[in-house]
Specification:
Elements (H helix, E strand, L loop, with lengths): L1 H7 L3 H6 L7 E9 L2 E9 L5 E6 L6 E6 L4 E4 L2 E5 L8 E8 L2 E10 L2 E13 L2
Length: 127
């Protein structure tokens, strides 16, 4: 939790105020990976780089990856996102809106081999 506060201390109010009725804004929730729940956040912007941050339980470490607006593709209510990290959550798949949350999958493929898959449920932070 300390890492979350450190990362968002200066920008959480701005991010909460920028929330729209679309996918844009700050989302926080739980990622389920190998039977463990971990805190994650996703920042999604219309006109600048967004990021996914995974806060690793019991440590001061995070995994982070970023993506540009053109990396987000929508088909119906399903979104796919290609991220920049070579081995951590380099693909996201989620639906919106479902009960005002983002629910989906993060998975990694490296050299055509699947590495890991995780499920997540996120809720929008609004001011």
């Amino acid at each position: 939790m300390r890492n979350f506060i450190d990362i968002y201390r200066d920008s959480i109010e701005e991010l909460a105020n920028s929330a729209t009725d679309d996918i844009y804004g700050l989302w926080v929730g739980i990622m389920r990976n190998s039977g463990k729940n971990e805190l994650i956040s996703i920042e999604i912007y219309q006109n600048k780089e967004g990021r996914l941050v995974r806060f690793i339980n019991g440590s001061s470490y995070t995994n982070q990856t970023s993506f540009n607006p053109e990396d987000i593709h929508k088909e119906g209510s399903v979104y796919t996102v290609k991220t920049s990290h070579p081995t951590f959550a380099n693909s996201l798949l989620f639906t919106f809106p479902i009960s005002y949350s983002l629910s989906g999958y993060a998975y990694s493929v490296y050299k055509d081999k699947p590495l890991e898959s995780m499920t997540f449920t996120l809720y929008r932070i609004r001011n």
